[in-house]
Each structure stands twice: as structure tokens, then as C-alpha cells.
Amino acid sequence: MPLDHGLIGVESAPHERSWTSADTLLYALGVGAGTEELAFTTENSAGIRQRVLPTFAVLAAQAPTGRRLGDVDPAMLVHAEQSFELHRELPPAGRVRTTSTVTGIYDKGSGALVTTEARAADAENGESLITSRSSVFIRGEGGFGGERGPRDEWAEPGRPPDHTVTYETRQDQALLYRLSGDRNPLHSDPVFAARAGFPRPILHGLCTYGITGRALLHAVAGSDPARFAAMSGRFSKPVFPGETLTVSIWTSGDGATALFRTAKDDGTVVIDRGRAAFRPA
What we know:
- This protein has helices at about 20-30, 40, 55-60, 175, 190-195, 205-220, and strands at about 15-20, 75-85, 95-105, 110-120, 130-140, 165-170, 230-235, 245-250, 255-265, 270-280.
- Helix content is about 15%, strand content about 35%.
- It contains 6 helices and 10 strands; from the N terminus they run βαααβββββαααββββ.
- Strand 3 (about 95-105) and strand 4 (about 110-120) form a beta hairpin.
């Protein structure tokens, strides 16, 4: 069954989602935060109020489209790109009402790129909270003669990074991160991972994204999530739990924007075309 192009532009019914203080604490642990980030990993430390890592916005805004893309083998699907805008700081516990729309299905030859936008509003007062945009690449679904999609002209600045942040991931990182909702066996089941062509389960792309977001938050935004306005990036290679990640960050002169790239120890880039925006202190 081919991909359903009739989905493009059709807004889903509103989907309501809530989260608790425990959910945002678990998410922070899942993306590697620990005892040096107690504002994000505890709710009862003396003199510290609980806050939320900005990249939790991607999970908070997730919503079903209400229709299937087609008869797609989930082993052939990978997360390709992710971006979000935060219209205000996320609360430790909250409730949103989200609508989502498939915005494009593009022909990449060896596969199809499906792009989606979700808009989440505070369920209590209707104020916009999150705009999230993502894309998935589905291997084997290309070649239908469609448009290839827009190009991103991201270019690395011709100078050393202003910040370089390195984090080690844990061997069980994916097992912890999956408790935040993504139970895809690609990240836990060796048999399923082998079927998808990997020697062992891979780390969730959004876990790598969250680890990268922590680096940006602490290096550029002074660890203040209220200053974190937006982030985007493309997943270029998989990460295996236990590998070390280094985030290279180039900031603008006024600190309002940054370009970034995340790579493994051997130089393999795993998130590229990274952009982030920040509010003034």
C-alpha cells in the first residue's frame, strides 16, 4: 500500500495530553541529567525549584494524526529531523491540547520523507505553548516521482566553536529513555534491531537530541530554560548506547542564536544542520 498523500494539509482532531512532575524528572534522567542538574532531576531540593529541560517540549507536543501513513514496516522508519519553538517556559506538570498536520511527503529516491507540524496550546487557557516540527524517513517508499523537498543551506562557520561540550552516554541509556514513552523495540530488542540492519539496539534520536539540548542550555542560555526559544537539527547517523557525544556550538555576536553539530568520538556527525535561538537574560 503506497503512502497516503491525501493526509497532506489535513489537521487532526485535538489530542489532549498531560504530564506530571515525575514525567519531567524521568525525562531529564533519560537524557543524561544527574546530580549536577538538581533543578531538572529533583523536586524537593532545598532552595531549588523544579524546572523542565526545554527539549521535553517535543514529547509534550506529540499527537497522533488520526490516520495511517500507509502499510509501512516500522523497521524501515527512522526519525530524520526535529525542531520546536517554545512560546514560554514549560511547567513541571501541565496539560496541553494539540493538533497535528502532515505538511509534506517528499521523494528522496531511496525513501520518502514525511514532514509533520504539531501545535500545542495550554488546555486551561488556550495560550500557545509549543510548535513542533518533525520528519521521518521511510526506506523503500521513494521513487514515486514527487518533489524532493526544500534544501537547508546550513554551513559551518569558518572558525573554532565558541563552546564544546562532551557527554558520555550510558550502556543502558535507551532502556531508561524509553520509559518516557517511545517503546519502539529498535532501541531495546536485539532481534528487532538486527532486522533493521543494526548490530545492536540504537539510542533514540530524541535522546541524542535531548542530550544536545542540555549542552545548549548550559553553555549558551546560562542553564535558564526560560531563555531557550527554539532548536532544530537533522539526525544524520545512529548512536549506540555507551558512546560519547561532543556538541560543537557557534554563537552569534549577541548570543541570540547559535549553530551546532553533535558528533561521536571518531568524528562521525550524528546531528547536523543544528540551529537554536535564545531570549535575552
